[in-house]
Amino acid sequence: MTYKVAALYQFVALPDFQRLRDPLRHLCEGLGLKGTLLLAPEGINGTVAGPGAGIDSLVTELREGSLFGGRLDNLELKFSRAATLPFGRMKVRLKKEIVTIGDPSVDPTRAVGTYVAAGAWNDLVDDPEVLLLDTRNRFEVEMGTFENAVDPGLSRFSDFRAYVERDLDPRRHRKVAMFCTGGIRCEKASAFMLSRGFEAVYHLKGGILRYLEEIPESESRWNGACFVFDERVALGHGLVPSMAHHTKGTGR
């Protein structure tokens, strides 16, 4: 038996996020799912795994059910498979942010960078005028990254603000393309850069995972493996677990 893994997020106003915690956890447990989901006033984020029918039922409930009342109508989803359950239990946590940048003025529901589909990514990053930024933490970058990408050397995602203010200039860096594991950090990062005067900011829709899922290895600009936040540790092209990496870390 293999298990279905769903990585998901959406930025959306959830003023009742605290009330949603227990019913969401009970729903997931009833479907035989394990993993972690984060709820915050700005939305939902997380990864869960379990039987395929259970994952499908959860997605239907999130999108169409009464629990969220139709608010999760733009859910970013990526599916993969695992030979064993990559999580030990089911957790639903309450947070101030679903991904922490530490600046309450950054609101991806107001303005974010331009989404670039996986199929159009190669053409964008081949442009010599584009500054390609990896917005993930240093240990993730060490496992794998895109050719010619700049590593800001982040210990945590909230360090991204200081990096931009210290090392980047909207007058000099006129085209910036960024990427992260599943796309969520780039929502915050691109919103922050727009607020600081950067005009042409692009980010990979669905993140590295979508790219590895859709782009053949023969056409790929990706080198190495992509760290994921579960017991599979790292994935390669086709979202197949990579056996070459056994180092675990923390972060988002």
UniProtKB/TrEMBL annotation:
<keyword id="KW-0808">Transferase</keyword>
<dbReference type="GO" id="GO:0016740">
    <property type="term" value="F:transferase activity"/>
</dbReference>
<dbReference type="Pfam" id="PF00581">
    <property type="entry name" value="Rhodanese"/>
</dbReference>
<dbReference type="InterPro" id="IPR036873">
    <property type="entry name" value="Rhodanese-like_dom_sf"/>
</dbReference>
<dbReference type="GO" id="GO:0006400">
    <property type="term" value="P:tRNA modification"/>
</dbReference>
<keyword id="KW-0819">tRNA processing</keyword>
<dbReference type="InterPro" id="IPR020936">
    <property type="entry name" value="TrhO"/>
</dbReference>
<comment type="similarity">
    <text>Belongs to the TrhO family.</text>
</comment>
<protein>
    <recommendedName>
        <fullName>tRNA uridine(34) hydroxylase</fullName>
        <ecNumber>1.14.-.-</ecNumber>
    </recommendedName>
</protein>
<keyword id="KW-0560">Oxidoreductase</keyword>
<dbReference type="Pfam" id="PF17773">
    <property type="entry name" value="UPF0176_N"/>
</dbReference>
<feature type="domain" description="Rhodanese">
    <location>
        <begin position="126"/>
        <end position="220"/>
    </location>
</feature>
<dbReference type="InterPro" id="IPR001763">
    <property type="entry name" value="Rhodanese-like_dom"/>
</dbReference>
<dbReference type="InterPro" id="IPR040503">
    <property type="entry name" value="TRHO_N"/>
</dbReference>
<dbReference type="GO" id="GO:0016705">
    <property type="term" value="F:oxidoreductase activity, acting on paired donors, with incorporation or reduction of molecular oxygen"/>
</dbReference>
<comment type="function">
    <text>Catalyzes oxygen-dependent 5-hydroxyuridine (ho5U) modification at position 34 in tRNAs.</text>
</comment>
